[in-house]
Structure formats: C-alpha cells, structure tokens
Amino acid sequence: MGDNLGGSGEELRLKISQKGLYALQAMMTLARRRQQGAIKIHDIAAESDLPEKFLELILLELKNARMVESVRGARGGYRLRRDPAEVRLSDIIRLIDGPLAPLGDAELLRGMIAKDSEHRALYEVFLAVRDAAAKILEHTTIADVAGTLVGRKSARSSKRRGPAARKKATVGQK
Asked: pTM of the entire structure?
C-alpha cells in the first residue's frame, strides 16, 4: 500500500506499525494476567514473544499515557490501570502510531477527493474503508481480543452469531 495512488503526489500506507502491534500484544498479556498483579517486563516479553528492550520503551510510553502503571520492588512490574473492557484498541494505536488511518488519515483522503476528480470515486472508497476500520477499532477493547470478559460474551462475538444462537446462549445462562 506504500504506492503513490492516482498520481496525486500523496501516499497511502498502512499506519499500524510494528511498535503498535507490540503495544497491543503487551496490553493483551497484561489483560490476561490481570488477576496476578504486576508482571515483570521479562515475563511480558517472553509470553508475547517481544524484544525486551523495545518493550521497555513501549511500556514507558503506555505508562506516561496512564494506560499501565509500574510497581517497584521484588514483586514489581507492570499492570493495567483500567479494566481491560475500558481500554479500546483505538486508544492504544492512536498513542503509539498517531491517527487511526489504515489508508491515510481522513483529512488527507478528503483533500484527495476534493483535488483529484479523476480518481475521486477511488478515494471515496478508501475513506469508507478507513472509517469502517476506525469504527471497528473504536468499538473493540483489549478485553475483546484478549478473551478476558469474565461471565459474559463480548458484544462483538454475540453480534457475529445469528439471533437463534444468541437466544439459545441467553436461555442457557438463566
């Protein structure tokens, strides 16, 4: 996607970096192990298969944004500051990578739509894709992807099933 599209001089590319993916993976590990308290960087790195030195920088950034907190001492490490169901993927990606923009930011795309009439329809599709991706990331939490919703299914998983399956699941819970 790093190609110059439509001759406009603007470049559209995937905006979720490796650093962003590492941050998401680390947050998922912290969510899964939340009941254990603070988790050492070494353990987070080993469990998530992340480079430890790079993870230190990511966790510091997450700490400065008040998404995680550090605990000192022999039992120290990092832990989530909020319930995983309250931490949206969009918040993490925006912190690490900037605006949610798998296909360029919305303003860039709107500008391309306005300037390049020959390719306007194409850029409108890209803007719709960008908006759909942003909406998904806004409505998906770390709990959803880490499987940490205790005693209930995530809203996303119940939406994927049909009405009969949702009704059956509800009846089985009573």
From this structure: 0.72
Backbone angles phi, psi at 36, to 5 degrees: -85, -5
Whole-angstrom distance, CA of residue 47 vs CA of residue 67: 20
Predicted confidence band of residue 148 (pLDDT cuts 50, 70, 90): low
- For the chain, how far is it from start to end, CA to CA, in angstroms? 49
In DSSP notation, 56-87 reads HHHHHHHHHTTSEEEE-STT-EEEESS-GGG-
- Tens of pLDDT, residues 98-118: 877 555 678 888 898 999 999
d(CA 26, CA 35): 15
Residue type, 70: S
Contacts of 86 (CB under 8 A, 6+ apart): 141
| CATH class of the domain at 18-146 | mainly alpha
If DSSP codes are grouped into helix, strand and coil, which group holds residue 150?
Answer: coil
CA 23 to CA 115: how far, in whole Å? 36
The first and second tokens of residue 110, run together, are 């709107």
Residue position matching structure tokens 């923009």: 101
Tell me how far apart the alpha carbons of residues 86 and 141 are, in angstroms, rounded to a whole number: 7
